[in-house]
Specification:
Structural class: mainly alpha
Radius of gyration: 17 Å
Largest sheet: none
Shape: globular
Helix content: over 70%
Number of domains: 1
Order of helices and strands: HHHHHHHHHHH
Length: 224
């Protein structure tokens, strides 16, 4: 890897981090006169917006978080592969590095004291961006996620079973011959690690049987 490529990686990572740090849950809440960080679970993501602000707010939050990852990551993928003329292997490297920047921005936004969401909608946006040429992949992932949530009514369980693993599984299936395979695989698993770290409290509640189910009115206050 030359210095120009490393600089490209760093720039794309930080640009994505800044865009990812835009908190749509917080913005939607403020429009309703509510600081979402003081409501429900205290997270700024889709599930808390849905539970505390309603379906419309939840959908707007999801769309904002999804597209704040998909659009910049897809744009970076295009620029890397067409404008900068990187090789396909380099382009994938840059793309998932940018994606992890978006997830970190969402989870740990600097302007909100590094307290954000859990990164699932953002990870979904990254997944679609990297697998856009393989639509069957992300369609199957979506169906699996929906099936798990419908059956169990645990959004957190669906998130941990599907979106959290979507990027590393894609890498293992489609990028096995990537020149930088070890590096991209490590970055890919960071998506999974971040998801499990942010869902640590959910995992404990799932095990104990106290996790809130979708559309339950009772919401356990938990900012962990």
């Amino acid at each position: 890897m030359d210095y120009i490529f490393i600089a490209e990686l760093i720039i794309c990572f930080f640009v994505s981090y800044l865009i990812g740090s835009i908190s749509f849950g917080y913005i939607v809440g403020k429009e309703s006169g509510v600081d979402i960080r003081d409501e429900g679970s205290g997270n700024t993501g889709t599930t808390n917006a849905l539970r505390t602000l309603g379906v419309k707010a939840g959908l707007v939050t999801f769309a904002g978080d999804f597209f704040k990852a998909l659009i910049p990551v897809f744009a970076i993928r295009y620029i890397s592969g067409h404008v900068l003329s990187d090789t396909p292997d380099m382009t994938y490297f840059v793309t998932i590095a940018a994606g992890i920047g978006a997830v970190l921005g969402h989870n740990f936004p600097f302007w909100m004291g590094f307290k954000g969401g859990k990164g699932i909608a953002v990870t979904a946006g990254v997944t679609v961006a990297i697998s856009f040429s393989h639509p069957v992949y992300w369609i199957v992932a979506l169906l699996l996620f929906v099936a798990i949530v419908v059956i169990t009514r645990y959004v957190s369980l669906g998130s941990l079973c599907v979106p959290a693993w979507a990027v590393p599984v894609y890498t293992l299936i489609f990028e096995r011959n990537n020149e930088y395979f070890v590096f991209v695989l490590i970055i890919s698993f960071l998506y999974t690690v971040l998801a499990f770290i942010k869902h640590a409290s959910n995992i404990k509640r799932i095990i104990s049987g106290t996790e809130n189910k979708l559309f339950d009115k009772k919401i356990e206050k938990n900012k962990a």
